[in-house]
Amino acid sequence: MPAAGGRHGSWYLRLDLPAGPDGRRRRIRRGGYASRRAAAAALSAIRGPDGAEPGRTITTGEWLEHWLASRTSPAASTIRSYAGHVRLYLKPYLGRILLAELSAAHVQAMFTAITRHHQVLGPSVSAATLSRIRATLRAALRSELIADNPASRAELPAARRPRAVVWTPARVEHWQRTGDRPAVAVWTATQTAQFLHAITGHRLYAAYHLIALRGLRRGEAAGLRWRDVDLDSKTATISQQLQQHGGRLIVCAPKTSHSVRVIALDHTTIAALRAHRDQQRAEAAAAGSDWHDSGYVVTGLNGGPMAPDRLTRTFKDLTAQAGLPPIRLHDLRHGAATLALAAGVDLRTVQEMLGHSSIVLTADTYTAVLPDVAYRAAEKVASLVLKAGCLIPGTGRRRQRQTRRKKGRRGGQAQRLSRSHPGRQIGRPPPRRSRVGPT
Questions:
Q1: Which of 60-91 are b and which e, b meaning 16 or more Cβ less than 10 Å from the residue's Cβ?
Q2: Can you spell out the DSSP letters for 98-121?
Q3: Residue 198 reports pLDDT greater than 80
Q4: What is the pLDDT of residue 386?
Q5: What's the rounded Cα separation, in Å, for the pair 191 and 259?
Q6: Separation of alpha carbons 406 and 413, rounded Å
Q7: Under CATH, what is the fold of the domain 61-153?
Q8: pLDDT in tens, 108-148
Q9: What residue segments make up the domains of the chain, in order of their start?
C-alpha cells in the first residue's frame, strides 16, 4: 500500500507477495515517488494486468502459462513450438520475475545464459533458435500489459536462412567419409527417380510421389482427402492439414492463407493416385468391419488418418534402405521446387505450387540449382562474352573474319559477276586491247 514517506515528503509503496518455492515470504518496497497518485499507479502496475486475481501480483511465468492456455488461432505445430520455448527457456530464466518489472536487461541476460549453457553442454544453440525463442516471448508480451515490449530490444546474432545444396557426388563422398551433412540438402533428379523407383511397391508411395513432384508439406499430404482430388480434371485442392498436438491428431487450416491452393497433377501423379486408390479399396475389403473409412488419401492400415510424424519416420527408413544420402522429408518439398526451376518453370508458377505468400520468399529459399543446369548457364555466359569480343578462348587474340565464297563450276574457282560488266569475272584481269595511234 502507498504510504507517506518521511521528512522529505516522498511516497513509497510496500507489497507482500505469496511465499516462493522455498517457502519464504517476499516483500516489495519502492520509494521516491513525488505523490500518492504516482505511488498508487506504480503499485497497480506491479500487481499485474486486468483479470489477475485481486490483491495478487502476477509473475512472468504465470502470464506465460495464461497466454499459452488462451492460444487457439495458430496451427497446432506453432502452439507446440510456443509450449516448448516456454517450458525449456522462458519460464526457467524469467518465470519468477514480476511481469511489470520485466526489462530488456532480463531478456538479454536470459539469451546470454542460454548461449553459455549450450556451449558448455553442447551442441551450440543456433541463431535461428534464439530468434524463434525471442519471437515467442514477443508474441506473449504483445498486448497492453507492457508499453515497451522488452523482447523487441534484445540483441541477437543475425539468423540466416540455410541455403539448399544439392547432393553432388563430391558431397556424397565427403558425407560417407566424415559423416558431415548439410543443414538443407536436396536430391538430384536422378536421385529422386532412384528413390521413387525403390519404393514403387510401398503402400505410401503416392504420398511421397506427391511431395517429391508437387511440393506438398507433410501436413498437407496427410490431410488430403479424396474429395479434394479430381483425377479427371487433373487437379488437387489443398484446403487443410493434419497436425499432432497433445498426442492426438487435429485438423487445421494450411500454414498461411496463400497455402490454400489448387495444384495441377501430371500424368505420373494421376497414375500413382489411381493405383493407390485401388490398393486402398483392396485393403478395405480385406479388413471388412475393422476398416474405418476416414476419406483420407493417406491412411493407416485400418483406414484412419495418418500422423505426419509417421510419414517422417517411414521416409527416413526408406531413404536408408534405398542407399541414398539423407535428407529430411521437408527437403523432398525443397527438391520439388528446385527440380521445377531446373526444368525451366517460371518462379511465379513455383510460388503458386508451393503456396508461398511472397515470390521473394520463393526466390530467397530455393536458389539451389542442379549442377548440370549451372554448368550450362556458365557456358552460355562465357559464349556470349566471347562472341561479343571475337576472342579466341584462352587468348587475347581476336578472330579474323573470313569471307564466305561460293565455289565455281570450273576447278572450284570463285566466280562473281561485276555489276558494271555483267560478263566479266571478278578476280581475273580484263583482256588487253591494242591501241592504234598515229605513226
A1: bbbbbeebbeeeeeebbbbbebbbebbeebbb
A2: BGGG--HHHHHHHHHHHHHHHHHH
A3: yes
A4: 67
A5: 28
A6: 9
A7: DNA polymerase; domain 1 (1.10.150)
A8: 999 999 999 988 887 888 888 999 999 999 988 886 556 67
A9: 2-47, 61-153, 165-373
**Cβ pair 34, 22 in contact under 8 A:** no
Question: Residue with C-alpha cell 523432398?
Answer: 332
Where are the strands (E) in 223-374, listed by range?
229-230, 235-238, 241-245, 248-252, 261-264
CA 185 from chain centre, in angstroms, equals 12
- The three three-digit cell numbers of residue 54, written as one number: 485481486
74 preceded by cis ω (within 30°)? no
Contact 311, 207 (CB under 8 A): yes
- CB proximity list for 22: less than 8 A, separation 6 or greater: none
pTM of the model: 0.68
Class (C level, CATH) for 165-373: mainly alpha
Q: What is the DSSP string of 197-240?
A: HHTTTSTTHHHHHHHHHH---HHHHHT-BGGGEETTTTEEEE--
C-alpha cell at 141: 508480451
DSSP 353: H
How many residues does this entry show for the chain?
A: 439
Q: Residue 23 pLDDT > 80, yes or no?
A: no
Identity (one letter) of the amino acid at 111? F
How far is it, in rounded angstroms, from Cα 207 to Cα 311?
9
- Alpha helix (H) ranges present in 73-186? 76-85, 91-94, 104-121, 127-140, 169-178
| DSSP state letter for 425 | B
- Do the beta carbons of residue 13 and residue 37 sit within 8 Å? no
Residue 49: pLDDT band (50, 70, 90) is low
Q: How many Cα neighbours within 13 Å face the side chain of 124?
A: 5
Return d(Cα 183, Cα 309) in angstroms, integer. Answer: 20
Give, in order, the Cα–Cα distances in Å from 169 to each of 254, 322, 325, 339.
36, 16, 10, 17
Rounded mean pLDDT of the chain?
A: 81
Residue 333 confidence (pLDDT):
92
